[in-house]
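Write out this protein's structure.
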Amino acid sequence: QVQLVESGGGLVQAGGSLRLSCTASGRPLINYIVSWFRQAPGKERERVATIFWRGTSTSYADSVKGRFTISRDDGENTVYLQMNNLKPEDTAVYYCNANAISDDYWGQGTQVTVSS
C-alpha cells in the first residue's frame, strides 16, 4: 500500500506561483510513475503532468506546458509540481497519482484557487 498526501495548495492571484508536494509513505515512489491530475467544478478530472522512473522523462498537458514543472526527489519520497504564471482556469483540486503495473493510488487532493 502507498499513502499519498498532497500539500501546497492555496489562493493566489493570476500570474503568481505555487509549489505542490506529493509525499508518499508505505513504499518508495521510485517504483511508480507519478502524475498530477486536476478536477475543476463540473469538469472531468484531467492529467496535468507525469514523471517517469528516476525522472528520466516528463510529460505535460498542452494547457500547462512552459508554466508547470514536475520533479521528483526519491530520497524524500516526494514529487513536486511547480506552477508558475497561474491563470484563473488553473483553479481546481489537484490530485497526486502513483501508478505501477498492478497498483494505482490517489491522494486526497489539494485545492488551488487562482483569482483574476
